[in-house]
């Protein structure tokens, strides 16, 4: 680990000086190498999947799975990053004082970015691409469930770098997946300029508690959909179904449904038919007392409105209007993504003004909270904090800035 950190630190000056053309050529080479090494990557992933069976929930295996389509999407994500404007060297602001002194605020690379993540192999290529385009070196530390996959991906990416004459140390993978290696990254002062944990609540909380290097909290998503009393019920059913079931193991999936009491008698039976009776993967509905009086389901426990299930489970609560919905979200949300379904512009405005989350939707699924969907190419994670970065973290969020001051012999 120490040698890797030393190599990463030594590489950051060269990487920070790469031109836009050099970075884009390297990214395209990395995407090509990823596709060229597809068979090797899929073989490694098959080993990871076999080892994970019986040790992780079935729904989580979907996060680990790679196939030809997902590798093609990973390569396309890298190419999309290459096509984006270079975030480095932008003049963010400038002013010329009365005495002629020019003060410019200019975007610059972060330096060495460490990413600790769990069992999603695609994060490996996303993080590497974003770090390189933003002029930074990355140190990746994945989970043990996906280590073989991540290692094969990194080997391919490094081949792409090497083909362009760029140091392979621009992309690094920690070989030790023990807790000790994670702690070492969290406390690598002088080596790591920014730490980004990407995973479940346990990982993120451990980083926030332990890290002595700058850290951005990401990921945990207790996402809400509120069906307001004027909602188009067909639209609401489509949005709720998509937000909950299209990919329940990801952080932008819906975990809590809030339904206005006025429409609950009409809406909840239709919801149960759609998500339980007619569903390929039935959803377990955990109901508050009002909802339980209207449809069959599991009584909601005290923790069900504070749990990121990442599974086919949905907590359901009936509320009295927008104000109560906003208050419930304020008490239970992790600040990720929330949605309202309504035809009332006043209700939409009250919801978007009152909800303090990174992404707030009107008549759309929370599943859109994603760097690719937001036009960022891909993402380093979803920041649920407010300092420096919030929401999907793309290239701009991976840069910092410095002031450049130009004078003509000015003295103070």
Produce the secondary structure layout.
Elements: H1 2-16, H2 20-36, H3 38-52, H4 58-64, H5 68-83, E1 91-96, E2 102-109, E3 112-117, H6 122-133, E4 137-141, H7 147-163, E5 171-173, H8 179-186, E6 194-198, H9 201-210, E7 223-227, H10 233-245, E8 254-260, H11 264-277, E9 284-287, H12 289-292, E10 298-299, E11 313-319, H13 321-332, E12 337-341, H14 345-354, E13 359-362, E14 382-383, E15 391-392, E16 399-406
Parallel strand pairs: 3-4, 3-6, 4-5, 7-8, 7-12, 8-11, 9-10, 9-11, 12-13
Antiparallel strand pairs: 1-2, 2-16, 14-15
Summarize the structure.
The chain has helices at residues 2-16, 20-36, 38-52, 58-64, 68-83, 122-133, 147-163, 179-186, 201-210, 233-245, 264-277, 289-292, 321-332, 345-354, and strands at 91-96, 102-109, 112-117, 137-141, 171-173, 194-198, 223-227, 254-260, 284-287, 298-299, 313-319, 337-341, 359-362, 382-383, 391-392, 399-406. It is an alpha/beta fold. Helix 2 runs antiparallel to helix 5, helix 6 runs parallel beside helix 7 (147-163) and helix 13 (321-332) runs parallel beside helix 14.
């Amino acid at each position: 680990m120490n040698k890797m950190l030393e190599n990463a630190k030594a590489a950051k000056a060269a990487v920070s000086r790469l031109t836009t053309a050099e970075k884009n050529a390297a990214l395209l080479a990395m995407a090509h190498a990823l596709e060229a090494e597809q068979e090797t990557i899929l073989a490694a992933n098959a080993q990871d999947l076999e080892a994970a069976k019986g040790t992780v929930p079935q729904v989580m295996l979907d996060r680990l799975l790679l196939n030809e389509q997902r590798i093609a999407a990973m390569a396309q994500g890298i190419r999309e990053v290459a096509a984006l404007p270079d975030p480095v060297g932008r003049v963010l602001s400038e002013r010329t004082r009365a005495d002629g002194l020019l003060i410019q605020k200019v975007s610059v690379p972060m330096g060495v970015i460490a990413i600790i993540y769990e069992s999603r192999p695609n994060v490996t290529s996303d993080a590497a691409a974003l770090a390189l385009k933003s002029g930074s070196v990355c140190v990746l530390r994945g989970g043990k469930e996906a280590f073989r996959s991540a290692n094969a991906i990194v080997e391919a990416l490094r081949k792409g770098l090497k083909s362009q004459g760029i140091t392979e140390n621009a992309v690094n993978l920690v070989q030790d997946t023990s807790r000790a290696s994670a702690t070492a990254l969290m406390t690598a002062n002088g080596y790591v300029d920014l730490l980004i944990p990407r995973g479940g609540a346990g990982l993120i909380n451990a980083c926030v508690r332990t890290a002595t290097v700058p850290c951005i909290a990401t990921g945990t998503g207790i996402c809400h959909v509120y069906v307001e009393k004027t909602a188009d019920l067909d639209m609401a059913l489509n949005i709720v179904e998509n937000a909950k079931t299209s990919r329940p193991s990801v952080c932008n999936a819906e975990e809590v449904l809030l339904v206005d009491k006025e429409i609950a008698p009409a809406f909840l039976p239709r919801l149960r038919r759609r998500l339980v009776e007619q569903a390929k993967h039935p959803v377990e509905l955990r109901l508050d007392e009002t909802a339980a009086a209207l449809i069959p389901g599991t009584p909601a426990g005290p923790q069900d409105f504070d749990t990121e299930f990442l599974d086919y489970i949905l907590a359901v609560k009936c509320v009295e209007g927008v104000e109560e919905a906003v208050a419930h979200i304020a008490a239970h949300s992790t600040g990720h993504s929330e949605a309202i379904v309504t035809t009332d512009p006043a209700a939409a405005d009250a919801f978007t003004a009152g909800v303090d989350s990174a992404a707030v939707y009107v008549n759309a699924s929370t599943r859109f909270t994603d760097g690719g969907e937001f036009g960022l190419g891909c993402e380093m994670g979803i920041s649920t904090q407010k300092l420096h970065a919030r929401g999907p973290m793309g290239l701009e969020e991976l840069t910092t800035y410095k002031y450049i001051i130009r004078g003509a012999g000015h003295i103070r």
